[in-house]
Structure formats: C-alpha cells, structure tokens
Amino acid sequence: xxxxVEVGSDVTKFKVGDVVGVxxxxxxxxxxxxxxxxxxxxxxxxxxxxxxxxxxGKPTQGGFAESMVVDQ
Length: 72
Description:
This protein is mainly beta. The protein is built from one helix and six strands, in the order βββαβββ.
C-alpha cells in the first residue's frame, strides 16, 4: 500500500495523494488477446512486481521498493 505521488497525462482513475495498493502484475503488452480482454495475467509479456524488469530495464523490487511505476 502506498500513496500516488505522480500521474501521467492519460491517467483517469487516480490522482496525486490517493492511497493505493498494487497487485503482483505491474505491466503488460496491452496488445495481445488476453490484454485486450482485460485478463492481463495471461499476457506473455506481463511484468511482475518483484524479480522482473520494467520495459526500460530497471528492476522491479516488489514490497522492498521505495517507489514503483504501475499501469492504472
């Protein structure tokens, strides 16, 4: 659980200051059938919140992270 400190221009569900929780998946390709069907857990390119890397190559650190970037 954490607090939103910054949002991108396309974010509509959250605002700075909101208290949020993050699940085990923090990203996906958004283009495959599972992603388009809102079942991202089946995406072959999903990004786990722990022991994985973001698309920019930075490691995900799960609950040990000081901050993290996630999709809404």
